[in-house]
């Protein structure tokens, strides 16, 4: 018997992850300098490299979000999602371990926190691990309702 929940669960995972990427990338596309500042705040990359990554990242996020929204190249988009999210988790954990006081910049702004503000690293890591689980589901079960992939493979 075929698992009927799979395509619906896949749809929920795919659209949820698409919404995350579209919101995150969309919030940063209008402020590429801010995105670059956020990447640089992690103090993991040379300044020039952080600037380039910060300027490119919002467009990658929007592209992955659009692919997931359409359900096109779902497994590949889920792999890219999982890899990006794991890099984000490692970056946040590194900032936490080194005592940096920064906003992750995950959904815009980012950079150094103002005096008296506290980072929310534990919450950010838990949230991103949850998103990794959604991506993992789509890697294993990329088939979902209303996806372009579904129509291309029939």
- The strand line-up of the biggest sheet is 1-2
Q: What is the CA-based Rg, rounded?
A: 17 Å
Number of strands: 2
Query: Can you write the helix and strand succession as a string?
Result: HHHHEEHH
Anisotropy-based shape: elongated
Number of helices: 6
Strand content: under 5%
Q: Roughly how many Å apart are the termini? A: 20 Å
What value does the average pLDDT take? 94
Percent helix, as a range, is: over 70%
Number of domains: 1
Task: Detail the topology: elements first, then pairings.
Blueprint (H helix, E strand, L loop, with lengths): L4 H25 L2 H10 L5 H24 L3 H24 L4 E2 L7 E2 L8 H20 L7 H5 L2
Antiparallel strand pairs: 1-2
Helix pairs in contact: 1-3, 1-5, 2-3, 3-4, 4-5
Provide a quick synopsis of the model.
The chain has 154 residues and is an all-alpha fold. It contains six helices and two strands.
What do you see in this structure?
- With 154 residues, this protein is mostly helical.
- The protein has one domain (5-152).
- Helix content is 70%, strand content 3%.
- It has 6 helices and 2 strands, in the order H-H-H-H-E-E-H-H.
- The chain has helices at 5-29, 32-41, 47-70, 74-97, 121-140, 148-152, and strands at residues 102-103, 111-112.
- Strands 1-2 form a two-stranded antiparallel sheet.
- It is elongated.
Supply the key terms.
about 70% helix; about 5% strand
